[in-house]
Amino acid sequence: MSDAYKFEYFTVQFPADHKYVAHVEINRPGSLNAFIEVMWENMARIFNKLSTDPDVRAIVLSGAGAKAFTAGLDVKAASEGLLSSETKTDPARKAASLRRHILAFQDCISAVERCEKPVVVAMHGYSLGLAIDLSTATDVRLCARDTKFGVKEVDIGLAADIGTLSRLPKVVGNYGWVKEVALTAREFGAEEALRVGFVNAVYDNREATIAAAFKIADLMASKSPVAVQGTKEILNYSRDHSVQDGLRYTGVWNSAALQTQDVSAALMSGLQKRTPTFEKL
Question: MF terms per GO, please (predicted)?
Answer without folding.
Answer: delta(3,5)-delta(2,4)-dienoyl-CoA isomerase activity
